[in-house]
């Protein structure tokens, strides 16, 4: 059985997160063409924004093998990015990160976690659905603006949906 250690990202971790995201994003090529796909951005600047970055590791002192980037936005926390190295997939690291995001969001007084994801990609909406996220229409200015921004970029990689997890419906684990 695999053990996952989740902690806050440190400044030393931030450059590695870009590599992890690019490796994980390469898996989309098995589902649709990723021609024109933008590579991951640096996480040094986003770490200065409101929110938090959690990392998953095999051992407490080891390098991250996955991460969750969460933005604090009006009315909720937004799970902006969840990535796990493909070489570390199917060991529960993604689920451990999602649970840690929920815990940290509760500690910060948040009532829900939101995200946007691909509806028909197995590692996307079906994964989040299995962990309690439900499809919802964007119901705040921020979430509607996110939808409009996606529509303007005309991603064309597949149907995307808004998903929410209501933190008031579940007792902390």
From TrEMBL:
Q: What is this protein called?
A: GNAT family N-acetyltransferase
Q: What species is this protein from? A: Cryobacterium gelidum
Keyword Acyltransferase on this protein? yes
**GO molecular function, a single term:** acyltransferase activity, transferring groups other than amino-acyl groups
Q: Which keywords are on file for this protein?
A: Acyltransferase, Transferase
Q: Which residues form the signal peptide?
A: none
InterPro entries reported in the protein's UniProt record: Acyl_CoA_acyltransferase, Bact_Acetyltransf, GNAT_dom
PANTHER family hit by this protein: AMINOALKYLPHOSPHONATE N-ACETYLTRANSFERASE-RELATED-RELATED
Taxonomic classification: Bacteria, Bacillati, Actinomycetota, Actinomycetes, Micrococcales
Domain called N-acetyltransferase: residue spans: 4-154
Q: Which Gene3D superfamilies match?
A: 3.40.630.30
> Does the keyword Acyltransferase feature in the UniProt annotation?
yes
